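## retry 2 of 3
previous attempt timed out at serialization; input unchanged, resubmitting
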Amino acid sequence: IYKTTGQPKKAEQAYLQLIDFNPGDPPNYRSLADLYRYQLPKKEKLIPALMNKILERRPEHPDILSWLATYWQDKGDIKKAIDYYERLLKVAPENKAAQNELNKLKNQ
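## retry succeeded, writing output
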């Protein structure tokens, strides 16, 4: 509710509490990362550490790997994007969109 009502700082605190209560739940990390990226851009630098935290618990979670692949691709870090697409495809080889993006990045 805080996120959609323009209260990003309250949303951040709520997500941090959710992560404390359930540190292995990937959607809370994704939501907080999205909040940092789009509504609290001064905190965007916290995203890598945040996402590494969930990867320590869930290293093969396809949603997190996909989010990170896209994030690094959007940021222009092709090497990291390729790494995450490759990791994603190891756990979700049927993901054609990821395979297409990986091929596109490797052919740049």
